[in-house]
Amino acid sequence: MLKKERKEGEGSKPAVKKQIQFADQKQEFNKRPTKIGRRSLSRSISQSSTDSYSSAASYTDSSDDETSPRDKQQKNSKGNGDFCIKNIKQADFGRREIEIAEQEMPALMALRKRAQGEKPLAGAKVVGCTHITAQTAVLMETLSALGAQCRWAACNIYSTQNEVAAALAEGGFSVFAWKGESEDDFWWCIDRCVNLEGWQPNMILDDGGDLTHWIYKKYPNMFKKIKGIVEESVTGVHRLYQLSKAGKLCVPAMNVNDSVTKQKFDNLYCCRESILDGLKRTTDVMFGGKQVVVCGYGEVGKGCCAALKAMGSIVYVTEIDPICALQACMDGFRMVKLNEVIRQVDIVITCTGNKNVVVRESLDRMKNGCIVCNMGHSNTEIDVASLRTPELTWERVRSQVDHVIWPDGKRIVLLAEGRLLNLSCSTVPTFVLSITATTQALALIELYNAPEGRYKQDVYLLPKKMDEYVASLHLPTFDAHLTELTDEQAKYLGLNKNGPFKPNYYRY
Amino acid sequence: MLKKERKEGEGSKPAVKKQIQFADQKQEFNKRPTKIGRRSLSRSISQSSTDSYSSAASYTDSSDDETSPRDKQQKNSKGNGDFCIKNIKQADFGRREIEIAEQEMPALMALRKRAQGEKPLAGAKVVGCTHITAQTAVLMETLSALGAQCRWAACNIYSTQNEVAAALAEGGFSVFAWKGESEDDFWWCIDRCVNLEGWQPNMILDDGGDLTHWIYKKYPNMFKKIKGIVEESVTGVHRLYQLSKAGKLCVPAMNVNDSVTKQKFDNLYCCRESILDGLKRTTDVMFGGKQVVVCGYGEVGKGCCAALKAMGSIVYVTEIDPICALQACMDGFRMVKLNEVIRQVDIVITCTGNKNVVVRESLDRMKNGCIVCNMGHSNTEIDVASLRTPELTWERVRSQVDHVIWPDGKRIVLLAEGRLLNLSCSTVPTFVLSITATTQALALIELYNAPEGRYKQDVYLLPKKMDEYVASLHLPTFDAHLTELTDEQAKYLGLNKNGPFKPNYYRY
Amino acid sequence: MLKKERKEGEGSKPAVKKQIQFADQKQEFNKRPTKIGRRSLSRSISQSSTDSYSSAASYTDSSDDETSPRDKQQKNSKGNGDFCIKNIKQADFGRREIEIAEQEMPALMALRKRAQGEKPLAGAKVVGCTHITAQTAVLMETLSALGAQCRWAACNIYSTQNEVAAALAEGGFSVFAWKGESEDDFWWCIDRCVNLEGWQPNMILDDGGDLTHWIYKKYPNMFKKIKGIVEESVTGVHRLYQLSKAGKLCVPAMNVNDSVTKQKFDNLYCCRESILDGLKRTTDVMFGGKQVVVCGYGEVGKGCCAALKAMGSIVYVTEIDPICALQACMDGFRMVKLNEVIRQVDIVITCTGNKNVVVRESLDRMKNGCIVCNMGHSNTEIDVASLRTPELTWERVRSQVDHVIWPDGKRIVLLAEGRLLNLSCSTVPTFVLSITATTQALALIELYNAPEGRYKQDVYLLPKKMDEYVASLHLPTFDAHLTELTDEQAKYLGLNKNGPFKPNYYRY
Amino acid sequence: MLKKERKEGEGSKPAVKKQIQFADQKQEFNKRPTKIGRRSLSRSISQSSTDSYSSAASYTDSSDDETSPRDKQQKNSKGNGDFCIKNIKQADFGRREIEIAEQEMPALMALRKRAQGEKPLAGAKVVGCTHITAQTAVLMETLSALGAQCRWAACNIYSTQNEVAAALAEGGFSVFAWKGESEDDFWWCIDRCVNLEGWQPNMILDDGGDLTHWIYKKYPNMFKKIKGIVEESVTGVHRLYQLSKAGKLCVPAMNVNDSVTKQKFDNLYCCRESILDGLKRTTDVMFGGKQVVVCGYGEVGKGCCAALKAMGSIVYVTEIDPICALQACMDGFRMVKLNEVIRQVDIVITCTGNKNVVVRESLDRMKNGCIVCNMGHSNTEIDVASLRTPELTWERVRSQVDHVIWPDGKRIVLLAEGRLLNLSCSTVPTFVLSITATTQALALIELYNAPEGRYKQDVYLLPKKMDEYVASLHLPTFDAHLTELTDEQAKYLGLNKNGPFKPNYYRY
C-alpha cells in the first residue's frame, strides 16, 4: 500500500499540511505523494517487514535446522501446540533473555504490579504483529498479566529471536514466527493468529500495518468486535490516516508513534548514541578530527551532530528549512550546501527523510575513503542504485560494509547499502523499547476501557497525560525525584496537580 | 489588569489548556488564575512598565538636567516640535548608536531593500509603545522606509535610551519618551502618541498591552479604523486572549511572542549565554566545580543547564513535569527535589514560571555564600518577601547584589532582589532583538495587507511560512547556505519548494 | 630590566632550552632575546607595574580627595602611623571586603588553623610587593597569624583597593600604597617598606621583581639577613633566572609561577571563563553561531576554544607547534592559517605569547564589525601601533572598547587596546587568587624553615608534594573526598601514602 | 621478569621517583616493588604475549586447518621458503588489508617518499617482534623501502592476522607467526628470526621485551653488532630500565612509549572513544542518564569521563592525587570515595593503574545490573579472584561478558573478566597505530644513524623535535595547516623556526 517507509522524526519531516489533533479530536493526514494512492490492497508485504534488523537477532542461530517450522509437529511441555516456532527446545535460553530484558523494562513491571488487582484488560483478546524479541515478550506477558489473551505474529521476516518465541510458546502464548520466514510464511503466520475457530480478537496491536491490512482484506467482519487499533510505526500510522481519509477506517486507532517520549527517545537520544555505535562497529573509524557532513538537522540530525561534536569531529550541516538551519548555526555548526564540503569530508550522514540527498555526482566527488551512511529513513536518501554501474567495483569487506571502487582506485565506504545504519549496524537500547512498549500497553488500556463515544472511527494521539505517565514510570530507572506542586502553586498556574502540565503545542 | 507578568518560555509553562491555533484559526487561552478577572481597566500601569532594564540604558546619563521634558520647549533642527524627549542635543550620539545597531540587524535592513519599490506599509499609521532603544529605532526607521507613519511612546519608564530618542526626534519621528518617567508621564506620553488632531492610527504595535489598554479605555472609537494589533510580550498577549475570550477584542491581533524563532532565541539560546553573563557581572563567581541547582527544565532551564555544565559546574535539576524530567535525565542531570541538595549547592537558579519555588525554609538551609537568582519570570519565584524580617540584615554590596545575613553570620547572595537576572544584570544581544523586531515588522505587513476576512477579531500566530522567512533573513549573518529542494524532492515530500517545511505541531 | 612581560602558560611558550629542575636542583633559563641584556638596573619601573587592572579596583573611588597621601598626616584608631594610604576612614568598608574574600579562600584560613600552635613563621620579617587587594589582605593576615611581621607596598600603581589598604593599616599593618600612584610614589612606597631603622626584612615576597630590584640596587647588604625570595610573576621569575645566570643571585628563590595548580588555574580554567566574561562585558556579543579564530593552542587557547565551542561558536585555531596542532584537531577544531579565515571570522583572539600575530595586513582584511582581542601576553600580539595611521579613525565607544574605522566605513572593534583582555575587562576569581596566595605562603614557610643547605643561591620550583598540598587544601571547597591508598596499594605502586603521587615530568 | 604489566598513561601513574631524561641524558627507573627482582631471566613468556587482542584478529579464521605451520612445507609464489605462517594462499586477502591500512597511515607513506633517495636504513638488519597486523605490515614495508632487511615474529600468540602474515611472506619478508601459537611455538618463531646462518641483526624493534630477552639469554654476543633497541611497551620499557639499572644494558635503547603524541593518543583520545565502543559492543547499554563512577582521573580517566559526560551520563570520580582531583572538580565531576556512590551507580570503570581498586566488598554492595569494567592496566584493578567463590554463579552471556549472580539473584555484569576493556572489546584505530609505528620508524632511523657517542648504553626518550615531526606527518590527515614563525618572531621567542617549540617539561 505504501511505496515508502518513513522514519519518525527525520530531519526534514515534510509538512504535508497535517493537522495533528489530540485525544478528543480526529486526526487527518493530507495526501501523500500521489502515486501512493494507485497502489492498493493488492500489495503483498510492507517494506518494513523485510528490513533487516541485524542486531536484535544477534543471539539467534538460524542455521541449525532446515525443516520449515510449518512442517513440524510442535508441542510445548504442557502439551499445548497452538503455536508455530523454530525450536521449542530453546525456551530456557529465551526465558533468560526475557528475564534480563525485564530488568531494563521497569515501567512494564510497574504496570503489572499496579494493575494487578484491577486487570484493566480482562476480556481483551489482543492480536499482535510486531518484532518478536525479548522486549516484546515482556510486553506480551504484561498484557497477559493485565488480563488479556494474546496471539502474535512477526512483523518482519528476519527479526524474530527464535529462542524468545520458544519461551513464549512454552509459556502458553500462541506465537507464530521464526527467523527467516518466506513471504508466504509471513502471511500464513498472521492468518494463524487471526483465523481461529471460536476466538475473535477485539484489539489489534500492529507495527507496520500488515496485520490490520490482512484483517481488512480477509476478515472485514471482524472489525465489528474490534474496539481499536494501536499502531506504532510511521508506515502503519500513515496507512491508518489514508484509511481514515478515505472514510474506510471502521474503528478508533491510536497513533503511538508521535508521542513526545517516543519521539525524543527514538530520535534525539537514541541516535546520539547509535551514530557512534554504528560507525564504530562497521568501520572502527576514529572520530577525533574527522570532518563530517550531516544532511538534515531534525531530531535525528541533532542527535548525530551533538555526538560527533562531542567526540571531536568537525561537523557541517545541510538543511532546507531555515528554522532548523538557524538552530544548527546557534548550536555551532557551519550551515553549508553539500557541494561546498563534499570534497573534503571524511563521513557523510543523511538524516533528512528525503530522497536522493546524496546522488552519484556527490559520490563521484568524495575523497578516497569517505564513509557514507544513512540515519534518516528507508533507503532512499543515498542514491545507491546510481552506484550499480559497470565501471564501479563493489567489494564486501565486512557484514554491512561495502567498498565501492572507482576506476582510479578511489574507495567509498558504503554502510548497510544505504539502509538505516542504526537498525542495521547498532542496537536499540532496551530502555527505548521500554518506552514504546509502555506506550503501547497504555494505548491498549485506554482504547479498551474508553467509554462509548470518547473515540470515533479516527486516528488519535495518546492523551498528553498518558504521555506524562509513561515518562513518570521511567523516572525511577534514573533514581529521579519529581517535585510536586503545592495547592497554592497549582492554583497559581491553573494546573491540576497531577497534570497534564503543558499545553498540547508545547515544543519540549 | 494583570496580577502577574509571565515570562515566555519559562520552565514549566502551565498548560491551562490553551489551544494555540494557527493563522487561519482563532486562538484562545483559558482562564488564568481567577483573581486576575477582578482587576479591571481601572489599573494604573503594567508591571512590565516598571521592570528595570538596566543594561539597555547603560549609556544614558539621566542626571544632567532636572527639568521635566514636559516643561521644555522642544524643537529639532528642522523646526519640528511634535515630540517630547530629554535632550535633542544628544541626537548625534544616538545616531551613532542606531548605526551600530543597524549593522547587527541585517534582516531589517534587508526588508528595507526588498520592500523599497512596493512600500507595503504605504498609508499605514502605526502607533507604537515599546522599549525605546537603538534596536527599536532601526525597526521604526524600517517601518518608515516601508511607507508607514509612526508615533511612539515607551513601554517602560526606565528603559528609554535618551540619545536614541533624540536621534529619532531629530529624524522627524514623533517620540514621547525619556528615561525616568513618572507614572503620570508614562500615560501622558502614550496619550500624546494617540491623541492628535487630524491623525488617527490604523495599526498598533504594543509591548505589554498598555497602549492597547489606553485606547480601549479612552478612545474606543479609534478601533473602527484600526486594522490590527501586533503584541510582543507574554503579558500583553495574555491580555488580548482575555479580551478575546470576553468577546471584547474588536480587531485582529497577532501574537508574535510565540513564534518559534523568537521563543528559541529569547529562551534557550539567549539564556544559555545570559546566565553566565549575569552571574559573572554581579558576583565574579568561578563556575568550575560549583554545585548548582536549576529549578525547572523548560527552554530557559535547558539553556542555563547546558551553559553551566559546559563551564564545569555540577548541575542538579528540579521539575514537576515527568517529560521534562526525563529529558533532564537523558541530558545528564540529576533530577532531585530541592530539599535534597539545598544544603550543598553554591548557586540556586529558578526558571519555572511558578511562584514560591524557593521559600524561606529553603533559604534558611542554604550554606554560607550561596547565590540565589531568578531566570524564570517576574519576581515571584523566590519568596523574597520572606527575607524581610527583623532578624535578617540586608546589605547592598553592589548594584543588583544584596547580602542577606543570618544571625549566625551566614550570608546569602541575592541577585536583582529576585527579579529577572537576565533583564537586570546582563544584556540582550542585538541579534535576539533583531529576530523580534523582524517578526513585528512582518506581522504588521501581514495584518495591514491581509485581504478582508483572512483575520477575524481574534488572536493569531504568525503563519509558519513567515516564521521561516524571519529565520531565513537571519541566516546571512552566519554565512549560512540553505539547500533548496529539487522539484523531484518537493514532490516526493509533498512540499512546496518555498515552504512551509514543517507541520504546525513540529517540535523543533 | 625586561623589555617585555611574558604571560604564564601562553599558547606557544617558547622553549628557549630552559631546563626546569626541581626542589633539590638548581634551575636556569637560557638567554632570552639578546636585547634584554642591554637594559640594566638603571630601569625605572616594570611594565607590570603599570598594567591596568580595572576590575580589581572596581569598588574604589579615587576621585574624592586630591591631596597626595604622602602629604597627609596619617594615624589609625590606635594611634599607629607607620603606613601611608589614601583614606583610613574607608577601613570598615575594606574590612567587609576582606571578610568576604576570606570565605572564598578557605585554604589560607585552614593554614591559619593548622599552623596556629606552631607559628612556622615566628620571627619572619616579610617585606612584600604585590597587588593590594582583599585577597592579598587575607594572605598578609595569614602570614601574620603564622608569626610573621609584614611590611607591604603595591606592585602596580593602579591596582590598589584603597579601602582594603585602609583596613590593613587600621589592623596594624604597615602598608604603603594607594590607587593612582606616580612613578615616584611607587618607589617611595617600596623604600618606606624596606628602609626602617631597627628593622630588617628576612624574607621577600615579590610580584614582578621591583622590590627585589630595589633592594639589590639600594640596600644590597640586606641580603645577608634574607633567607629567600618568593616570586610570583613570569617577569619577576625571568629576572631571577637572569640574576642566577649572571651569578648575582645571593639568596635562594622560589618560583611559584610554574606550579601545576597555579598554571592550570591561571590559564586553562580561568581563561575558559574570562574569555566569555571579557567579551560580554565589553561587546555584549552573542556567541552562538559566531565564527572565531583563536591564535595559539596552549593552555590559554585551549580554555578559550573549549568555552566558545560550548557556547555554540565555530572555532578555528592557528598554531606553530605540530603537537599542539594535533591536539586542536583531535579536540574538534579546524587548524588553519590566519589568512585562510581572516575574511570570514567575527572574532579574533590571540593567545600565543608571540609578537605581531595579528598585523595590519590581517586587520585590513577583516570584515566589518570584527572583534579583536588579546588573551596571550603583554600587548605585543596585535600590532596595534600599525593602526595609528592618519587614514584610520579611532572612536572610543566604551571603556576598553575602541572602534577603528577604515575609510570605507568598516569598523574593527579593538578591545583593551590590545592589552590582556582578561586583566583589563574581566575579573580573576578569588578561587584562583587563593591558589596563588596559598602557594606563596607555603613557599615562604618552606624557605624560612628549610635546613641549611637544602636550597642554594638559585631558583627552585616548589616541591611537588607542596603543590599537591595546595591542591588538597582547596578540595573542601568542592566538598571533594579524596581516596587514600591502602598500605598494600602504596607498596604495589612504590609510593608513599602521602605523596608525591606523580613523577616530576607528569603532564596532568 | 615482570610480575605485572603496566599500562601507559594510567590514572595514577606512580611516581616511583623516575627521572625521565632527554635525548642526551640517561634515564633510569627506580626500583619497582621488590618482588619483581626475584623473578629472573628464567621466565618463560611475558604476560603481554598472551593478552588476547580480540578485535585486531577479527577477520582471521583460524579453524580451517589443524596442521601446525611448523610441520608444513612452505613456499611463496617465487619459491622463497624462509618464513613460517598459517596459509600462504591467504596472501591476496592480506594484501588488500594492507592496502586499506596504508590509506590510513599516511605518515609512513610520506616517510617512504621523503626517504626514497637517501635510504636512511640502508644496511640495517632489523629483527622485530610485535603484533602482526596490517598496520605492522605497513611499518615493515616502510622499513624495507628505507633500505632495511627485516625478520619478524609475533609478540602475542593470539594476535597475528594470518592473512597479513601470508601477504608479507608472499612479498618476501621472513615472517614467523600465526594465530594460536603454543608457548613453544612462540619462542621457536623468535629463534627462527634471530638464528640464521650468515645473517646477524643490527637493530631490534621490540614490543614487550621478549625478543630482547631471548637474545640476551641465547645469543648475547649478537649485541656486539647491534646498534640499538627500540621498545614500545610499558612492560618492555620497564625491563630495559631494569637492565640499565643493573648495568646490563649493552646497547642504547629508545623508549618510544613515553612520547607525547603516543601518550595522548593511546590514552586520552583513544580511550575517549573506546570506552563508549567497548561498553556498547558488550552490553548495548544506553549512556544517557546513567550514573557512572570512574576510578582514576589520569589521561585514561579524563578520556572516559569526557566521553560519558558528553553522552548524558552522570559521572563521579575517585582519585588519590589531590591535583588530579582538583582537575576533576573543575571539569565538572563530583569527587567521591567509591563507597559513597557504589550503591547507586550503573557502571563502574577503573582507570588507576593500581590494584584492588574494586574489591569484593564493593562488588557486594553494587546494585543489580551494575556493569563493571577495567580501562586501566592489566587485570589487577578489579579483584576478580574474589568473585570465584561457591555462592556466586558465573554465567557467560556473550563473548567477554559474564553475569556474576549473587544468591539473592543480583547480577553484576563483568566485562572481559576484568582485563582491559579497550583491548578486549573494542578496536584501536589505525590512526593511533600509525602514530606509534611512525615513532618506531623514526627511532630506528635515529639510533641507526646517530653519530658515535650521541647515545650511550642507556634508555632514551625520542628527541622532542622528532616527536614534533611525528605530529607534523599526521597533520595532513586533518587537512591541517601549520603556521610558520617569521624570522622576527623566531628571534623574539628565541626559537629555531623548525622547532623544537617547547621546553622538555611542557605539559601540553
UniProtKB/TrEMBL annotation, chains A, B, C, D:
CDD domains hit by this protein: SAHH (cd00401)
GO biological processes: one-carbon metabolic process; S-adenosylmethionine cycle
Annotated EC: 3.13.2.1
Domain S-adenosyl-L-homocysteine hydrolase NAD binding: 267-428
PROSITE patterns documented for this protein: ADOHCYASE_1, ADOHCYASE_2
One Pfam family in the UniProt entry: AdoHcyase_NAD
Basic and acidic residues: compositionally biased ranges: 1-11
Binding residues for substrate: 133, 207, 232, 262, 266
Comment on bound cofactor: Binds 1 NAD(+) per subunit.
InterPro entries: Adenosylhomocyst_ase-like_sf, Adenosylhomocysteinase-like, Ado_hCys_hydrolase_NAD-bd, NAD(P)-bd_dom_sf, S-Ado-L-homoCys_hydrolase_CS
Cofactor dependence: NAD(+)
Superkingdom of origin organism: Eukaryota
Keywords: Hydrolase, NAD, One-carbon metabolism
Gene3D superfamilies on file: Adenosylhomocysteinase-like (3.40.50.1480), NAD(P)-binding Rossmann-like Domain (3.40.50.720)
Coiled coil location: none
GO cellular component: cytosol
Family: Belongs to the adenosylhomocysteinase family.
Protein name: Adenosylhomocysteinase
